[in-house]
Amino acid sequence: MSDPSALRSEDFATPDGIEVLDQLCLTLLECLLIANDVQRDVGLNLDELISGLSAIQNTARSAFRAASLLNQRAELEVAWSDYFSRPKAIFARHHAAVRSGARMVRPREPAASLFDAELDDAMPIDDGPQVGTPRPACTSATKAKRACSNTAIYLGSGVFAQHCYSHLTAVERRRFDKHRDEIAALEDRLLEEGAQHIARAAELVRLEWQRKRQTDGTWIDTQAAWQRSGEFQ
Ligand SMILES: [Zn+2]
Hints:
Elements: H1 15-37, H2 47-71, H3 87-99, H4 113-120, E1 154-156, E2 159-160, H5 170-214, H6 222-229
Antiparallel strand pairs: 1-2
Helix pairs in contact: 1-2, 1-5, 2-3
Bound molecules: zinc ion.
């Protein structure tokens, strides 16, 4: 069991420790995929289980990233106590060292993060220029003959209309409607593809888990445990 009072001789993380933490993150992702997927078979609201698993998954990934800093021998400010640092404290101690001139080391990502990255990077949506890029102003004038102060409408592919929404010409409005419909269709498709990606992964994990339960020599005898607890209908 964890011994929070363990005295810290030095900050360390072995390659074996990193590998097992990586597997822990992967197993938690598997748990989340299964907790979502099992609702097809079990008529229960599993919101609490899923949000708990999500929270603990974030904590585990944070531990992996902190351990990866230790393993890379990232410079750390002196610890505030003689006991093991929490992951957050490792990040803070490294940042403090960087502020004092140490080389910045990037924490590594656990393998499980690749799954989220694949979902996020599926396809960028063309919903306007990057934040911070200036947008052209509407070229129309208001009824008071002053220049309209609204920004021009984005039409996709890096092109802006000459006008804001209320001053769009009929041609611009058709183009804007077309762009908006295309974005909506793309978003629907990406959501659908994301759901399929998750469902495929959950199916693979489920098969793997079922196979593991049949395998001899697992660390706990699940067959005997089930026989003890009686039959399920
Ligand atoms: Zn305008």
